[in-house]
Write a structure and sequence with these properties.
Helices cover about 25% and strands about 15% of the residues. By secondary structure, the protein is of the alpha+beta class. Strand 2 and strand 3 form a beta hairpin. The structure holds iron/sulfur cluster (2 copies). The site of one iron/sulfur cluster (SF4) has 13 residues, from helix 2.
Length: about 160
């Protein structure tokens, strides 16, 4: 009889502990968001898309065409070509195949002039893999190319 009472007491205590967790989750702060209608900010060191920001002082690329990022990339997804000589040397091609990129960040780390950086954009899904090759103009814009597959943008019963 005493063993039965102990087991009943343990069952009630277990039920109480479980319901306490459920109730706390019910009234507590919600951490889920209705993506893609709602979005959360990414961390400052987020590895999103890669970009080649233009120097605001000179209006030209910060890249000094040293090819270090191309050499260090483990996925061989950076392709750089340049024309001209000496101070007149200019980038003629800077392509990144983002579908091959593993977001390791080695290209960003090795760059001596901070010419290549990560930006917070992460919505790069597309129905066409060719859209995942980012050229010089795309990288200077530092934004995803169009068209982007945005997924569900409106849900039943919601605006
Ligand atoms: S993040 Fe890594 S894989 Fe992607 S382009 Fe840079 S070096 Fe290559
Ligand atoms: S490492 Fe930096 S400066 Fe060198 S080629 Fe790459 S982006 Fe340009």
């Amino acid at each position: 009889m005493e063993a039965l009472a102990t087991r009943a007491w343990e069952a009630v205590a277990g039920l109480y502990a479980g319901l306490r967790v459920t109730f706390r989750a019910l009234v507590g702060r919600k951490n889920t968001v209705m993506y893609p209608l709602q979005k959360v900010n990414v961390a400052p060191r987020w590895h999103g898309l890669l970009a080649l920001p233009v120097d605001p002082e000179t209006g030209s690329d910060k890249c000094i065409i040293c090819f270090q990022c191309e050499r260090v990339c483990p996925d061989r997804c950076i392709h750089i070509e340049a024309g001209g000589k000496g101070k007149d040397r200019l980038l003629t091609r800077f392509d990144i195949e983002m579908d091959k990129c593993c977001y390791c960040g080695l290209c960003v780390e090795v760059c001596p002039t901070e010419a290549i950086v990560f930006v917070p954009h992460y919505e790069t899904s597309t129905y066409n893999r060719a859209n995942l090759v980012y050229d010089l103009d795309d990288l200077r814009r530092a934004a995803p190319k169009e068209p982007i597959a945005h997924g569900v943008v409106a849900m039943r019963g919601r605006p």
